[in-house]
Design goal:
2 domains, Outer membrane efflux proteins (OEP), 467 residues, single chain, 64% helix, alpha+beta, elongated, 4-stranded antiparallel beta sheet
Length: 467
């Protein structure tokens, strides 16, 4: 009878666990990773700030173009002059009204500093674009991290609750066996202690899930966002290419941080040219047309007749700086030092990209291997639990053996679920590390989700041992 009761309760526990996981893994109106990323694009304050900074940087770069374009201005004015005139034979006191209007244009013909600033503006616009790309990559990773954190917390809570059901069944079995005299009170107390511990773990898991959901909601700007769980069976992406040197080559060719640092060197070189232009002459073309109206004559004539002057002018202005108190020489020294600094920054950026790419690649490879090892451990833990349950039923194992086997199995399942999410995130982090991450990478991750309504991975179902 003891054998039949244990088997019946084990069957009830398995059914309850499966139902619990199915309810937890099949939320209504679940959202995909791509959906939540698009929502975050329009809401996340960090990304919106980066876009605003990009727009400001582009506008700032465009300002330098004014230095090589014509400057046109219209002038107008009115004045009143009170004048006392005295000659040998006569003296006169009178006031004059005068109005003037004109249009003048200046076109730089030779201004080396302005042309260097214009070339800098092109580089600075490209730098702003690289910075926006980095911000976009960061958003992709942050949304994915928050998304999988919620899924991992959901899995952890579901597993704790499933473990709680299993421990409760074991506690009930221990109490029944004690009542009929086939076991000691120790079995009951051990099961009760384990049950109380699992209840505490459930409370902590519930709190952790709520916190993770708040973080995701704040990031995407939606209240009650519901991530779609992974599809069953879980298919993790294959690391392609499998050679770290290929990832390093891609990073060197187009990593936004390296592009930004390279452009920074070019900007510094042009800044040296701007400083050196302080020794060079400038040449401007000027064109103007001005009208001056004196209704009561002029201030240099006793005549009171009306005078109107129309004057058109065209010419060039040459300017050659000779000495500026050694300011130009010291400015050149300063820019040369800053150029060396920018080159050092470029070398440091390349080294950091190389280190981060290697670390991300090794982490992803290690994570993939860990998933395989945990899948084998899960199967072994399931077999061990079944063996301990059978041994407990026939009297060769005690209750604590079953409880320990249950704890080991559920801990392995939690570790496996977390390892899978880490592999998915590791693929994104590797692409971010070598600078090739784009929002299109989320489309590939969407393929691992249960978008067709299939339930998420049943973390409590027995898993076959890998061959």
């Amino acid at each position: 009878m003891r054998h039949d009761l244990s088997r019946r309760h084990a069957t009830q526990a398995t059914t309850s666990i499966a139902l619990l996981l199915a309810l937890a893994a099949a939320p209504a109106e679940a959202q995909s990773l791509v959906d939540l990323y698009r929502s975050a694009q329009g809401y996340d304050a960090v990304y919106q700030g980066a876009r605003a900074q990009y727009a400001a940087s582009v506008a700032r770069a465009a300002q330098a173009r004014a230095g090589i374009l014509p400057a046109v201005g219209v002038t107008a004015g009115a004045s009143f002059t009170e004048q006392d005139l005295t000659t040998d034979n006569n003296s006169l006191s009178r006031g004059f009204n005068a109005q003037n209007a004109g249009i003048n244009a200046t076109q730089p013909l030779y201004r080396p500093a302005n042309w260097a600033a214009y070339q800098q503006s092109k580089r600075q616009e490209e730098i702003a674009r690289a910075q926006l790309t980095l911000a976009e990559q960061d958003l992709v990773v942050r949304v994915s991290q928050a998304y999988f954190d919620v899924l991992a917390s959901q899995d952890s809570l579901a597993l704790v609750r499933a473990q709680k059901i299993g421990v409760a069944e074991q506690l009930a079995s221990a109490k029944r066996n004690f009542e009929v005299g086939t076991s000691t009170i120790t079995d009951t107390r051990e099961a009760q202690a384990r049950f109380d511990l699992v209840v505490a773990q459930e409370i902590a898991a519930e709190n952790d899930l709520q916190v993770k959901k708040i973080v995701l909601d704040q990031l995407v700007g939606q209240a009650g966002s519901v991530p779609t769980p992974l599809a069953a069976p879980v298919v993790l992406p294959v690391v392609t290419p499998s050679d770290v040197n290929a990832w390093l080559t891609q990073a060197e060719a187009g990593h936004p941080a390296i592009v930004q640092a390279t452009l920074g060197v070019e900007v510094a070189e042009l800044e040296v040219r701007k400083a050196e232009a302080g020794h060079k002459p400038t040449l401007d073309a000027q064109l103007g047309y001005n009208v001056t109206n004196n209704p009561q004559g002029t201030t240099t004539s006793i005549s009171t007749g009306k005078v109107r002057v129309h004057a058109a002018s065209i010419g060039v202005v040459f300017n050659l700086p000779l000495f500026a108190g050694f300011a130009t020489e010291n400015r050149v020294r300063e820019t040369l030092a800053l150029e060396d600094q920018s080159r050092s920054a470029l070398d440091n950026t390349r080294r950091n990209v190389s280190v981060s790419t290697r670390a991300a690649f090794l982490g992803l490879m290690s994570g993939a291997s860990q998933v395989k090892a945990l899948e084998a451990a899960e199967a072994s833990s399931q077999v061990a639990l079944d063996a301990n349950r059978l041994g407990y039923q026939v009297g060769v194992r005690i209750n604590i053996d079953v409880l320990n086997s249950q704890s080991q199995l559920f801990q392995t399942k939690r570790d496996l679920a977390l390892a899978r999410y880490n592999v998915l995130l590791g693929d994104l982090r590797l692409r971010q590390a070598n600078g090739t991450l784009t929002p299109d990478a989320l489309v590939a991750l969407n393929a691992t989700l249960a978008l067709d309504g299939r339930p998420a991975v049943d973390s409590t179902a027995p898993v076959a041992r890998p061959r």
